[in-house]
């Protein structure tokens, strides 16, 4: 199994989060409201600049109706 670097994992999260949000025609603010997180966090995650907590990832996944693992898939 090939090991991922933290930077690679952040980029995967950024790509998947943006894609899933846009598929729903949601703004970052819409997602933040649905997930009960700050819009600044959504923005930082989408440019791979934040290290989210498991709690934040779970809230975002629930809002998007996906599993946490789906946010990290290649």
What does this 3D model show about the protein?
With 74 residues, the protein is mainly α. The protein has one domain: Orthogonal Bundle (434 Repressor (Amino-terminal Domain)), CATH 1.10.260.40. Helices cover 61% and strands 0% of the residues. The chain has four helices and no strands. Helix 2 packs across helix 3 and helix 2 crosses helix 4. It starts with 5 loop residues before the first helix and ends in a 10-residue tail after the last helix. The model has no long low-confidence stretch (mean pLDDT 97). Pfam families: HTH_3. InterPro entries: Cro/C1-type_HTH, Lambda_DNA-bd_dom_sf, TransReg_Diox_bact_type. Keywords: DNA-binding.
SSE arrangement:
Blueprint: H1 6-23, H2 28-35, H3 39-46, H4 54-64
Helix pairs in contact: 2-3, 2-4
